[in-house]
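--- STAGE predict ---
source: upstream dedup step, 1 unique chain passed
mode: sequence only
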Amino acid sequence: MIGFYDYTVILTYLSLVSAGLGITITLIGKGHPFLGTFFLLFCGLCDAFDGEIARSKKNRTEDEIRFGIQIDSLTDLVAFGVLPAIIGEAMIWQNQEYSMVPRLHTGNRLDFLVPILAMMVMMLYVLMAMIRLAYFNVMEEKRLKEEGGKRKAYTGLPVTSAALIFPFVMLMQFLTMRDLTFVYYGVMLMVGYLFVSRIEVRKPGIKGVVVLCLIGAAEFILMLILRSLAK
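--- STAGE serialize ---
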């Protein structure tokens, strides 16, 4: 078979599987955004450590390194580009039977515009994520040839930040019991812009990664608690 299947790519493959399951479950019935958020958090956990695990293999070939970069970005597009957009879509069409998230309804004749505008925001967000990832691939390959070693900072907000940002918005919706669907889409627009902006984001070290994982774990636990209380 073509491709690589050693331990250095396992987490990346798991992240893609998680994203695919998240998309499928989120679209079940009229939508299930709550469960989709948990798969997004798991994707973030996988991404937090896949790079370190890949670099732990000292005798990686040039093909293995390039393959790792490509599958990482392809997976990130699905996990942190498509999945958050699908969760947003489900927040509009979700069924009260499956979710404690309030149904979006403006109560006027302009309701039909909501899914149209939402689709435009979703596509723009996914497009910005794709551009960000493609640009990173080009620049990373160039940097590895000229400098080598680990990168110290990113240009533009990494798409993996979606793993913490969108679950936080969902968590706020549960805590306030208000319909924050419009807020979710506003955040999607802002985050999409930051993906392609020229802001410098320092790459977190081991301690930073641990802190981010703890934040994700806290979001996960709080959402589980809120869900159990709602039953």
